[in-house]
Amino acid sequence: MAERTAIIGSRVGLHARPAAIFAEAAAELPVEVTIAALQDSGCKRDLKPPVSNNDRAI
Questions:
Q1: How far apart are CA 24 and CA 48, in angstroms?
Q2: pTM of the model as a whole
């Protein structure tokens, strides 16, 4: 399986509005999209629906 990694440049992470835009774009893709914190904090979310608004901000 192909895998891509992108790093969010902001030290404070991905917040609500950009996370919602990202999740909407990911929902349109025919592939699995997962977002996780760079450090192993256990913070990992699958961005396919259903996703609550609270789960979109990491």
A1: 9
A2: 0.54
